[in-house]
Amino acid sequence: MQPIARYAATAICLAVGASAFAAPTGYSVRSDVDRKLYSIDMASGVATALGATGFNKIEGLAINDAGEIYGVNPATAQLVKCSPTTGACSAVGVLGGLPQIQTNAGLAFSSTGALYLAANAVIYRVDPATAAASALGTTGPALSGLAGVLPSARCSSGIFGMGGNNDKGKIYCVDTSNGVATLLGNISLTPLDVGLDGDTSTGLVWGVTNDVPGKVFAVTPSTLAVTNMSTITLGGEEIGGFESLAIAHSAKPTTGAAEPSGFISVPTLSQWSLLALATLMFVVCVLATRQPTRSVRNTRAVRSDRK
Predict the structure, then answer these.
(1) Is the predicted pLDDT of residue 2 greater than 60, yes or no?
(2) Fold (topology level) of 24-264
(3) Which end of the chain has fewer CB atoms surrounding its CB within 10 Å, N or C?
């Protein structure tokens, strides 16, 4: 293979490798341990500490299209805004009309940019600029997390919730006109508390458990199948204590209709599958970019002797 062709093959291998391992970045606060905001590679579970939030507890993170992260401080019923670079959070204002939040809180932006809060078994519409909150109605079960994806036949609002405590592992569709949460079924995980958010480009609902160690996972809402499950690690050590999740937004689909289920199917890989794929790609790239074989070198040597 000529040098230029080898370089091109190497570049292609690297590009394919990067795309194969592309996965969203999640943000979560380790409220039960150090009250720091972390970024998490949702493909591997590897976490990076960004910095202290400045609050004793943050629940229900959500992120908008501009990359602004919002959360809820249960002790003061305040909406807060957090830096995705330093982790520091500042109060936006008191969530008017809410009692002090005693239970888990879920927070999510819908695909249209509306912000919804689940607290004390009630759904609220929240103004992210002022923290003004309007109660839409009771959900029935108390929801530990909320996630927003594109609307579908399965869930016309695109707002999904997950229960905790007595409703562990249950997935709901939330009616944003009246707050009612309709049970869709159970997933294979049953954490007491969970952070939840969605990726509107894939339709996947992502979650993080409050277990020790914690786990990240993805749910395909049309089937409730759990994939992409990985243990959260920091510096190679397994960690836990997370209670919230915001998924950095990737590009939204701009053309074409959704599948009948309402979600775009994308291949999802476990850690072992990723390792196998990486090994295969390495072998292919080595074969494609290696130096000429001995027979080719010998031929060149013979030609040189004949001169």
Answers:
(1) no
(2) Tachylectin-2; Chain A (2.115.10)
(3) C
